[in-house]
Amino acid sequence: PLVIWNGQGFDQAGVAFAVMPGSWKGLPQATFLASSPRAELGRWLTQQAAYYPFWSQVASIQQDSYGALELTLKTGTVVQWGPPENEFASKKVQALLRVLDDMHAHSGGTARADLRFFDQGRIIVSSKNLRG
Questions:
Q1: What's this model's pTM, rounded to 2 decimal places?
Q2: What are phi and psi of 33, to 5 degrees?
Q3: Is 5 helix (H, G, I), strand (E, B) or coil?
Q4: What are the C-alpha distances in Å from 17 to residues 9, 25, 56, 66, 128?
Q5: What residues pair up with 80 in beta bridges, in sequence order?
Q6: Helical ranges in the chain per DSSP H
């Protein structure tokens, strides 16, 4: 499985299947819409999981009512990803890691990153510590 969703494993084909309770504790916990195209989510997850330096940091994934994804990293950083498209996914991950490394080096603490405008050349990053 790539994630745990509703207590089940969820694989690259978007298939949910039974897993032993308590197994796969290191995998991200996911909350997807029941109406989401599972195959599309499976492809997106596969692409993210292939980039281990990023994927190993993901603690959870939430999908909002519009289908946009929000990831929470193990550091507490929250990433607003946007829809689970694959066109810019690897470039998004690489840029995100560079930006977060830079922010942590200069500001420390946890961050909030918004990648929804990545296709317009923008990543919005702020310190969560500033939001209070």
A1: 0.88
A2: -70, 140
A3: strand
A4: 5, 16, 22, 25, 36
A5: 70, 114
A6: 38-49, 52-55, 89-106
